[in-house]
Write a structure and sequence with these properties.
single chain, about 220 residues, alpha+beta, 7-stranded antiparallel sheet, 7 strands, about 15% helix, elongated
């Protein structure tokens, strides 16, 4: 039985969390307030600018893997839970005052094809309709949509995401520029593999290193 992979993929289904510097106390210092007001004014002056994207890359990342589980003839349900090995977190960084993270991710989504290329602005796209621009939603759950093996073998379940990242340059109408970097994820991947067979993808090979190799925690005797 070869590894089975399910992929949950639809335009705009990349979600995650982005920390944006929340203030937990009152009595803000005058200097901080002035700096924030200045930054707001600069962002307003730079509205309706243009994005240029470069070094766009994508990479499948293993997010969770279960311990090895042996099944006899006919297979059956696997019970070992997946443990998280990586948590995808969309992020946006800029070297100066820039549009909101949602606006940057909106432009990035258009660049990667997660958002319709003819959607002109975030507002015209329906605000938070596009999940790719949502900077608060959590990473996908690990144990959703499990596959049930129907044959004997030494099995493990694994999960992953496809991450996309890129550098950007934002040019204001007056010619000023801001550079930065954005990252998000676009595909929720789930897989099943038999440790007795050769792994057929980079994610499966990484999962095998966690649970199939002799020294792995999931092997008998460890």
């Amino acid at each position: 039985m070869h590894g089975t992979v399910r992929r949950v993929c639809a335009a705009g289904l990349a979600v995650g969390a982005l920390v944006t510097g929340l203030t937990a106390c009152t009595g803000e210092a005058e200097g901080d307030a002035a700096a924030r007001e200045t930054g707001r004014a600069v962002r307003q002056a730079c509205a309706e600018g243009t994005f240029t994207w470069s070094r766009v890359t994508e990479r499948d990342r293993l997010t969770g893997v279960s311990a090895l589980e042996r099944l006899g003839k006919g297979g059956g349900r696997l019970h070992n839970p997946m443990r998280r090995v990586y948590t995808p977190r969309p992020s946006v960084h800029a070297d100066g005052p820039a549009p909101s993270a949602a606006e940057i991710l909106f432009s990035f989504g258009k660049k990667t094809g997660e958002i319709d290329s003819d959607a002109r602005t975030l507002a015209e796209a329906g605000g938070d309709t596009w999940a790719f621009t949502d900077v608060r939603l959590p990473a996908p759950e690990l144990d959703d949509g499990r596959v049930v093996p129907r044959a004997a073998g030494e099995f493990l379940q694994y999960a992953g995401v496809r991450e996309v990242s890129a550098d950007f340059r934002y040019t204001c109408p007056d010619g000023r520029t801001v550079s930065g970097h954005a990252r998000n994820w676009t595909v929720d991947i789930g897989g099943l593999m038999d440790c007795e067979e050769k792994a057929d993808s980079p994610l499966a090979r990484e999962a095998a290193r966690h649970s199939c190799e002799p020294a792995a925690p999931g092997r008998p005797g460890h």
